[in-house]
Specification:
Elements (H helix, E strand, L loop, with lengths): L2 H12 L2 H19 L5 H5 L1 E2 H7 L15 H22 L1 H22 L5 E2 L3 H17 L4 H22 L1
Antiparallel strand pairs: 1-2
């Protein structure tokens, strides 16, 4: 095999392709929601407790991860996922990162279902992103004497703050 081709394949294999794929999926979904409203992706996919409880629409624990309410919501979640996703995917590996992302999103939506009032609709990748933040903070605790990891934790704390502030408003 050609050396350049082999190097390119290794770079792709070791790159943050799960992060890029997740951003691509939520970008396609965002564009479909706004360019093809007749598909009604948002009403069919947001976390809405009564539909889960009464109609057993359990996919609503997964689909809200990829739906967003507006351009600012989409842009902030995508930006945060882009920066923190690359770091956590490199540290945890592709499969564990993907499992952590999906599990965090599903559990976050389950908590939304359990603790929100009945008429609240929720969507966004924030639940999955906060799970990624948690995984990164665990690395910061575990490697508390590693200055490189501690520096990354401090830098990414800004994204945690940004996500919290956006979530409040």
């Amino acid at each position: 095999m050609n050396f350049d081709l082999k190097r390119t394949l290794n770079q792709w294999k070791n790159g943050p392709y799960i992060t890029y794929t997740l951003i691509a999926i939520q970008t396609v979904v965002f564009l479909l929601v706004y360019l093809a409203p007749s598909l009604q992706l948002q009403p069919k996919g947001v976390m809405y407790g009564p539909y889960v409880a009464f109609f057993h629409q359990y996919w609503r624990f997964v689909t809200p991860i990829f739906l967003h309410f507006g351009l600012a919501h989409y842009a902030i979640n995508s930006l945060v996922l882009y920066f923190i996703g690359q770091q956590v995917e490199a540290l945890y590996g592709h499969v564990r990162f993907f499992a952590l992302y999906l599990l965090s999103g599903i559990l976050g939506n389950a908590f939304s279902f359990a603790f929100n009032t009945a008429g609240i609709q929720s969507a966004g990748s924030s639940t999955a992103i906060f799970g990624i933040f948690g995984a990164f903070l665990i690395l910061g605790i575990y490697f508390r004497h590693n200055p490189a990891i501690q520096g990354m934790v401090r830098q990414l704390a800004l994204f945690v703050l940004l996500s919290l502030v956006f979530g409040i408003f």
